[in-house]
Amino acid sequence: MKETPALTDSRLAGTDHQVVRHGRVNSLEEAAELRGMDPSAVIKTMVVRRGDDDYIFVLVPGDRVIDWPKLRDVLGQRRLSMPDAEEALAVTGYVRGTITPFGAERPWPVIADERLTGSMVSLGGGAHGVSITINGTSLVTALGATVADITKHRS
């Protein structure tokens, strides 16, 4: 499999990480199993629209979802929305299920849930079946991410 833009991102090059390649997955649980991780350590990268041509990446542990009131408070914004798949592709360069801040079309700001620091995590590597395992604190540092309590348990 060829290298993805994520795997050649200079911010990733300066970290201790491992690239894991596996087949396409159909669920969080399947991704966690193939990556040898707990589902809470599989990080979802969500794209959130703040306004016209203004987006952020939100890093969410696999067992949690965005808590919209918390995220709005952290950002100091009342209106946030999720772009559709076509718009997400246009602003990141990645199709849904492969989105990562690394190697994205533009270096949008990153907000990371506080629960992903301090332990090993796995996030998408820019293609189906490609992931990056990295210490969560190193991930936050490499991306210059803002860390905050922005999620809640899935209901």
Quick take:
With 155 residues, the chain is of the alpha/beta class. The chain has helices at 10-13, 28-35, 68-75, 85-92, 136-143; strands at residues 17-21, 42-51, 54-61, 64-66, 110-113, 120-124, 130-135, 146-148, 151-153. The protein has one domain: YbaK/aminoacyl-tRNA synthetase-associated domain (YbaK protein), CATH 3.90.960.
Fill in the keyword field for this structure.
155 residues, alpha/beta, YbaK protein, seven-stranded mixed β-sheet, two-stranded antiparallel ribbon, 5 helices, 9 strands, globular
Give a structural overview:
By secondary structure, this protein is an alpha/beta fold. It has one domain (6-153): YbaK/aminoacyl-tRNA synthetase-associated domain (YbaK protein), CATH 3.90.960. 23% of the residues lie in helices and 30% in strands. It has five helices and nine strands. It has helices at residues 10-13, 28-35, 68-75, 85-92, 136-143, and strands at 17-21, 42-51, 54-61, 64-66, 110-113, 120-124, 130-135, 146-148, 151-153. The chain has a seven-stranded mixed beta sheet, sandwiched between helices. A hairpin with a 5-residue loop joins β6 (120-124) and β7. The longest helix has 8 residues, at 28-35. The mean pLDDT is 95.
